[in-house]
Specification:
With 314 residues, the chain is an alpha+beta fold. It folds into two domains: 164 residues, no CATH class; 129 residues, no CATH class. The strands form two sheets. A four-stranded mixed beta sheet has the order 1-2-4-3. Helix 9 packs across helix 12 and helix 10 crosses helix 12.
Length: 314
C-alpha cells in the first residue's frame, strides 16, 4: 500500500512550488561502537554543567578557577568571556558540530573526532556508541577553555537529565520498545512536525503504521533523505530506490537510529502518543503550519486537495 507513490504523480506538476521549510535536516557523521564505559564517567567529571533556566554553562577543567557566576549571572555588570550558543531542535549531528565549530572558533575536525570518541562522551549503553540523537538541543554558555569533548559531553549530560525527567527508559519498557527506538521515533516526529502541538498525533501515526507491519511500511521521506545525506522535505522517485537502511519505503519498521537530535517535546510525544487511528498527515497550509490527520484513504485525498488549493491561493 503505497499512497505516497501515487501522490508523487499528482504532485509532479508542482515541482517548482514552494515547499514547507525542512525542520532541520543536515548531514550525519560516522558512528563507532563503544568499547568501554568506565572512561565515560571519568570524562563526564571533566565537565561542569550549571543549569540556569533553559541555559547551561559549560566549563572545562582549566576554567574552574573562574567563579561560575561570571558565566551565569545576568545583568550583574560582570564581563562575560564565554560563548553563548543556541542549538535548535531537530538539527542533524553534523550541523550541530558545524555550529559549535563556528561559535567557538575550534576546528570542525576536532568536533568530528570528539563526536566519534564515544568512550569520553558519557553516552548511555543503549546509544550503541552513536552520538546522533543524544546531542541535546538548547542554549549553552561555553568557556573558551572548554574542549570539543567537554562541550559534547555536556550536551549528552543534558540529554541524560531530560531522559530521566521524561522517564525514557521506563516509558520505552511500557511501550514494548527500546530507549533507542523511542528516541528514533522522537527524531522522526521532530523532523516531520512544524507545530509542536501536533507532535503527539504525528507520533501516533508512526505507531499506527508500525503496528500494521508488514502490510504497511513507515514511508517517511525524512528518513530516506537522512540515509542519502540529502537536504529537503520530499524524496524523489530515485531516492526511494536507495538501498540505505534508512529507506523506510523499502525496509520494514524503524530505521537503525535517530535521524536528528530531538527536543523534550518530541521525546514526550514519542512516549505519550495521542489516541487515534490516523495513518496519514498532511500539512494542508504550509505557510501557517497547519497539519491535518486522516484515518482513511478518502479522508487523506481530501486533505491533499485542500493542500493543493492552499498552494494556489497562497
Amino acid at each position: 500500500m503505497n499512497i505516497e507513490d501515487l501522490l508523487r504523480e499528482t504532485f509532479s506538476d508542482m515541482a517548482q512550488e514552494e515547499q514547507p521549510p525542512p525542520p532541520g535536516r543536515f548531514f550525519p557523521v560516522g558512528r563507532r561502537r563503544s568499547r568501554r564505559r568506565g572512561l565515560a564517567l571519568a570524562a563526564a567529571a571533566a565537565v561542569t554543567v550549571l543549569a540556569v533556566g533553559s541555559t547551561l554553562a559549560v566549563q572545562g577543567l582549566s576554567s574552574r578557577t573562574a567563579a561560575p557566576a561570571v558565566l551565569t549571572r545576568q545583568g550583574s555588570g560582570e564581563t562575560r568571556t564565554d560563548n553563548r550558543i543556541t542549538l535548535p531542535e531537530g538539527l542533524r549531528l553534523s550541523m550541530v558540530l558545524t555550529e559549535l565549530s563556528a561559535a567557538t572558533g575550534k576546528p570542525l575536525k576536532e568536533f568530528e573526532r570528539a563526536a566519534e570518541d564515544d568512550e569520553a562522551l558519557g553516552l548511555p549503553v543503549y546509544a550503541k556508541g552513536a552520538l546522533e540523537g543524544f546531542a541535546f538541543p538548547g542554549t549553552y554558555d561555553v568557556s573558551p577553555t572548554s574542549s570539543p569533548k567537554e562541550i559534547l559531553a555536556a550536551m549528552v549530560a543534558r540529554f541524560g537529565r531530560v531522559a530521566e525527567d521524561t522517564g525514557l527508559v521506563e516509558g520505552a519498557r511500557r511501550l514494548g520498545r527500546t530507549p533507542l527506538e523511542i528516541l528514533t521515533i522522537a527524531s522522526i516526529v521532530q523532523a516531520e512536525t512544524l507545530d509542536r502541538r501536533d507532535m503527539p498525533k504525528v507520533a501516533r501515526v508512526v505507531y499506527n503504521r508500525l503496528h500494521r507491519t508488514p502490510e504497511m511500511r513507515l514511508q517517511m521521506d525524512s528518513t530516506v533523505l537522512y540515509g542519502l545525506n540529502k537536504l529537503g522535505s520530499r524524496a524523489s522517485k530515485g531516492d526511494l530506490k536507495s538501498r540505505s537502511p534508512y529507506n523506510t519505503y523499502v525496509h520494514l519498521g524503524l530505521p537503525p537510529g535517530p535521524i536528528c537530535n530531538p527536543g523534550a517535546d518530541a521525546i514526550k510525544a514519542a512516549l505519550n502518543p495521542a489516541a487515534g487511528r490516523w495513518l496519514w498527515f498532511v500539512t494542508t497550509d504550509p505557510e501557517k503550519g497547519v497539519t491535518k490527520f486522516a484515518d482513511s484513504e478518502s479522508a487523506f485525498f481530501t486533505l491533499v486537495e485542500e493542500y493543493k488549493k492552499n498552494l494556489k491561493t497562497g
